[in-house]
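Hey Z.,

So I finally got round to the FE2/S2 (inorganic) cluster thing we talked about over coffee. Here's the setup:
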Amino acid sequence: MQKTSEKSLVVVNGIKTKVHNLDYDITLLDWIRTSLNLKGTKEGCNEGDCGACSVLILEKKNEKPKAINSCLIRLGQVIGKNIITIEGIGDKNNLNPVQKSFVKNNASQCGFCTPGFIISATTLLYDNKKINDDNIHDTLSGNLCRCTGYTPIINSLKELDNVKLAPPKYIPVKKIEKVTVGSSNYYHPKNLKDLTLLTQKINNFSFLSGGTDLNLEREVYSKTTRNYICLTNIKEL
Ligand code: FES
Ligand code: FES
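And the result:
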């Protein structure tokens, strides 16, 4: 089985991090927790339903980070991108404004869902929009809490109406066009021309963009080579 190329980098919390020695396909969530030992990001449903695994992704300069479910993204999809985990947005000596407001409003009971809520809620502060019930509900619609109840969580955000945060700095890394993780090849064409050439060159492949359906297939230890053409770097799309 092939191993991952040493040239593959993901920027995690501002640090260029090598992806190597992986002889099996892996989700972003498993990589963060097991290879990087960043355990603040939680695994709940592992199927994109609960938001406990939320992290931020930053794909380009001058872009605002988006919250994604790291259990539904394969590591091969995020090569060359910037990822920010809960450890990258605040710690106990330096809480971010959402964390402070959660503490003040008792918005966490068992705490399992809390990192995911904080990640999603922080995206609201990167938008220069007025915080209201609608955008609070939209922002938190992918996050489930089973014990605190939503009222204190929503109240925490209502208090942040005048708080804005500068988005994290984007750190560029060289984009590579193909990375192998375990038995899977991930291709990252940059434009439609490259995409067309690739589809003529490779026989069996799947297109991969958000991956919310395809990535529920968990054949990570498969010995069959799989080819994925990732669409997120294509300018025209
Ligand atoms: Fe539930 Fe990822 S662990 S959405
Ligand atoms: Fe326990 Fe939300 S605080 S699940």
